[in-house]
Amino acid sequence: MPKVDIPGVVAHLRSSFDCYRTRDIAWRREQLRRLKRMVLEREADIFAALKEDLGKSTFESWVTETGFVISNIDYAIKRLRAWMKPEKVTTPLINQPGSSAVHREPLGVVLIIGAWNYPFQLVMSPLVGAIAAGNCVIVKPSEVSVNTSAVVAKGICDYLDPEGIRVIEGGVPETTALLKESFDHIFYTGGHNVGRIVMEAAAKHLTPVTLELGGKNPCIVDCNVNQAVAARRIVWGKFLNAGQTCVAPDYVLVHEKVETEFLDRMKSTVQQFYRANPKNSPDYPRIINQKHFNRLAALLDCGEVVTGGETDSSERYIAPTILRDVPVHSPVMDDEIFGPILPVLTVSHVDEAVSFINARPKPLALYIFSQDKRLQQRVLQRISSGGVCVNDVVVHVAVPELPFGGVGPSGMGAYHGRASFETFSHRKSVLSKSTRMDLPVRYPPYSESKLKWIKRLA
Ligand code: NAD
Fold it and tell me: Average pLDDT, whole number, for the chain?
């Protein structure tokens, strides 16, 4: 049984929303400023919690968590007035004199459910959008990253308006209780199975959902690339957060002509980044918990180890591992790996990679390394994915103008930048007419000539 009176919290927020508390631009800006102050003033606590939960370095914690959230906040504050302005659209002659505009109105009381791998930004970044759009919000951080959950809860409680923004900590019982309530939007980040639970619960109330899910992100490496740069970028993106990244390259499909050279480069890059023993590198994180450690350790013998393969269960350490000669039907190619293991498979042509990828569920991210622009275009046109990064990995998520989200089984809906504001807003269509003129042609009794006029004016 949850310790918190969840229906009471939801009812309280709803009454705040119904009193228009959160709609003013002043309230939204103030909350965003306070949120930024919280991140800056509590940064040391946030870093300590991330270290405790995932062994994240300060560098990665800033780049992928606090720094990311601060830039989200600054971006939203700067553009908020423009986003909130009704967007004028043309009005056809038939509705003249009149003017038409799309108004953005807040949805109401929204729920944000986060995942453990980027446990700070995965709740804070959607929170920025929900506040900017003028909603009341409940944030439910992942209980798996227990230390960060506590810092998020305390920070929100200490800095933000409790009449509009609350945190409910906890796991399955708390989330189950939350999902019984009626929300105006649910924003969920996590795996497919719970995604289904969330969507099913939302359907009971006809609540719209955003599902930020995962999947196996393919990375195509053509034969005409700058191998050194490709290896550096792929190794960085894969072993960032020890592979526990929804947009990490899950597997590589390399052109057979360059396989050996590419594997050598990747191996030496791993050594360059994390030295001879990555276990001692302060930059290399740990696996979140024993369950995930065991799951990942069981995948290490799915191919020939090019580098890595070592584990230490007492520290939940798995070395950055690259595998070659991986059979297509081995367990490491079944589900999203979500850990520091990179299978490298070969293809004889990029078209073979396209067929391979299209025979599998649509990924969240697709990566293509090639100097050939026509080939890049062919891949872009033939593969559907949430997003794409050409000649790099992961960093497309840091472009605020690019909506971030999946397609098909990798998710629905998107956020980041303006897309976050839109996700938490209703686009209300408003036609405003004058009564000075009232065209008689639309009224009965109808006639051939009225129909002729209507056809001209419509
Ligand atoms: P998780 O275990 O933290 O679960 C996510 C949330 O669901 C948590 O808040 C948890 O409390 C809640 N939850 C768990 N079981 C539940 C249940 N039975 N009923 C209701 N709520 C429940 O995270 P996870 O699922 O292990 O997350 C990893 C997945 O998330 C990966 O597939 C990854 O790719 C994906 N992910 C996607 C994104 C994205 O932006 N698309 C970002 C990060 C992670």
Answer: 97
Rounded CA separation 155/36 (Å): 11
Q: How do the domains of the chain map onto residue ranges?
A: 6-213+411-430, 218-398
User: Containing H/E element for 324?
Assistant: strand 321-324
Cβ proximity of 258 and 223 under 8 Å = yes
CA 250 vs. chain centroid, Å, equals 16
Residues framing ligand 1 (Cβ under 6 A): 113-117, 122, 140, 142-144, 171-172, 175-176, 189-191, 194, 197, 212-214, 246, 336, 338, 364, 406, 411
Give the pTM: 0.97
- Do the beta carbons of residue 49 and residue 151 sit within 8 Å? yes
Q: What are phi and psi of 167, to 5 degrees?
A: -120, 135
Q: Is 65 in the active site?
A: no
In angstroms and rounded to an integer, the radius of gyration of the C-alpha atoms of the chain is 25
Torsion sign across C-alpha atoms 6, 190, 38, 19 = negative
157 in active site: no
Query: What 3-state class would DSSP assign to 80?
Result: helix
Residue-level pLDDT at 112: 99
pLDDT at 457: 86
Q: Given 3.40.250.10, 3.10.105.10, 3.40.605.10, 3.90.70.10, which CATH number is that of 6-213+411-430?
A: 3.40.605.10
Between CA 266 and CA 270, with CA 268 as vertex, the angle to 5 degrees is: 70
CA of 448 to the centre of ligand 1 (A): 61
- 229-243 burial: b if 16+ Cβ within 10 Å, else e: ebbbbbbebbbbbbb
Q: What is the pLDDT of residues 3-60, one digit of tens each?
A: 899 999 999 999 999 999 999 999 999 999 999 999 999 999 999 999 999 999 999 9
Q: Are 129 and 415 in contact (CB under 8 A)?
A: yes
pLDDT > 80? residue 1: no
Share of residues in the chain with pLDDT > 70 (%) = 100
Domains 6-213+411-430 and 218-398 share a fold: no
Give the residue from 381, 28, 412 showing the smallest Cα distance to 199: 412
> In this structure, what token pair is assigned to residue 239?
């072993």
Question: What does the DSSP 8-state code read for residue 62?
Answer: I
Query: Is the pLDDT confidence value at 2 over 80?
Result: no
Architecture of the domain spanning 218-398: 3-Layer(aba) Sandwich (3.40)
Q: What is the pLDDT of residues 357-414, one digit of tens each?
A: 999 999 999 999 999 999 999 999 999 999 999 999 999 999 999 999 999 999 999 9
